[in-house]
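idk why but the lab printer keeps eating my pages so im just putting this in chat instead. protein + 3,4-dihydroxyphenylalanine:
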Amino acid sequence: MDIEKILQQFDVDINKATNCDELIEIRQNYLGKSGHLSQVMRMMKDIAPSERKSFGEKVNNAKDRVESLLRTKKEELEKLAIENELKNAKIVDLTVPCSENVGSLHPITIVQERIVEIFKSMGFSVEDGDEIETEYNNFESVNVPKNHPARDMQDTFYLDNGELLKTQTSAGQNKIMRKYGAPLRVIFPGRCFRNEELDASHENTFFQVEGMMIDENISISNLIYFMKTMLSNVFGKNVEVRLRPGFFPFVEPGFELDCSCPYCGGHGCNVCKHSGWIELCPCGMIHPKVLEMGGIDTDKYQGFAFGLGLSRLTMMTFDIDDIRKLNSGELKTLKQVKVK
Ligand code: DAH
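predcted complex ->
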C-alpha cells in the first residue's frame, strides 16, 4: 500500500472520529504493531538500497503527521466533551439560598462560643492552647509530680519524643501565667485526650474550658460569682451554685461545683437524677506552688481556676445521651442541633 493512500485514508478516518475511544482504535490501525504504517516500514527490505533512505524518511514523516493529527484531534474532542457537559448541565442559580442540607456549627462549637462570649463580656481574654504538650506543662507545672497517684487517672497517648496529648486544659496554666503575668483574667478552651474505656459518658477525646482569674484579694466569693453568672447565661435562666470539697493537686482548697438543675428548677428530674443538682465544674483557689511555678508573686496575688467539662455541658444543653456521638460525625444527632 502506498503511503499517500494510507494518509488519505487516515484523514478520512480521523475526520469521522467522534470520541477518544475511536481515536485509540485509529492509532492502533495506523501506528500499532500490525498497523498500516508499521507494515509499510516492513517493506523496507524489498526497496532498492539507493531509495531506502528517502523511503524511510517518508514513512517517518507520515508517522509524525499521524501522531500530531491524533494529538490535535484528541484535544479537540476533549474540549468538545467538556462544552457538551456544560451545555447539558442543569444550570443552578448559585445565589439562591439553600434550604436543605445546610451545614451548621458543631454542638460543641455552639456552646463554646456562648461561653466565650459570656466571659469576654466579663473582661476575660481567650487563649488558644496546644494539643501536644510537654509532660511538664500537663503535669509537673500543675503540681502533679512524677509518680503522683493523680497521674493514674489521666493516662494518655505519649509521643516518641516524650511529649503527650494533653489530658486537661489545665496544661495551659503555666504557659499563660508566664506569658501575661498578673493580674490575669483568661479562659482557654481545648481538646483533651485520655486513654479511656469508652462508654456513653467516657471518650478518649473530649473538650474542656479552663479559666483563671488572678489578682489581688481574690477569694472564693469571686469564684462563686463568676461561675454563677456564667452558668445562668449558658442556661438562659438564673441558677444557684453550691460547692463541695474536691481534690485536685493544683488547687487548694479544691471544689466540685454543682449547679441547681436548670431543667426542673431543682425539684428533681431525669437530668439531675432527682437530686436537684448537677455536678458541672471542678474548681478551686490556685495552689501557691502552681502560682510560683508560673512566676506569680504569691505575697501579692491569689487566684481561682476552673475546668468546665465542655463536652458534658454540650450534651446537657442539647439533650445528647451519648458522648461518643459528639465525635462520631453522625449527622442524625448533629443535625438536630441548630444555632438558636
Ligand atoms: N483539670 C481537671 C480535670 O481535667 C479539672 C480541673 C479541676 C481544672 C479543678 C481546674 C480546677 O482548673 O481548678 O480533671
